[in-house]
Write a structure and sequence with these properties.
The protein is mainly α. It has helices at 2-10, 14-25, 29-49, 56-100. It is elongated and about 90 Å long.
């Protein structure tokens, strides 16, 4: 709905706006047009009033920060992979040792309760 309203707002002529509203919303589209345009304007005003609109500079900074977090996630993920690879020989010895202790390789033990 917001994308449709944005598209309608971006059109210069009222007739183009009405034609697009008709195409998107059907016969009631032209009747809804004033409400859509007013609602979009009011929503933007409220967003500015409550301080939830970011400036272009803030938006770019947020995008850059998000990209940095994505890179950090990749680096940390690879660090854990490398740690796992380094620990594999020790873990393999542990698994081998535990496997040898399994029921096939030991005498049954009885516990008295």
């Amino acid at each position: 709905m917001t994308d449709a309203a944005e598209g309608l707002k971006g059109l210069e002529s009222d007739s183009a706006r009405a034609a697009l509203a008709l195409k998107i919303f059907g016969r009631s589209g032209t009747e809804m047009l004033p409400m859509i345009m007013e609602g979009l304007r009011e929503a933007r005003e409220q967003a500015r009033e409550f301080g939830v609109v970011m400036s272009g500079e803030s938006s770019k900074a947020a995008e850059t920060f998000g990209d940095s977090l994505d890179r950090l996630k990749l680096v940390l993920g690879m660090a854990f992979v490398n740690l796992g690879i380094a620990a594999m020989p020790v873990l393999q010895k542990l698994v081998d040792w535990l496997t040898r202790l399994g029921p096939n390789h030991q005498e049954p033990r009885h516990c008295e309760v």
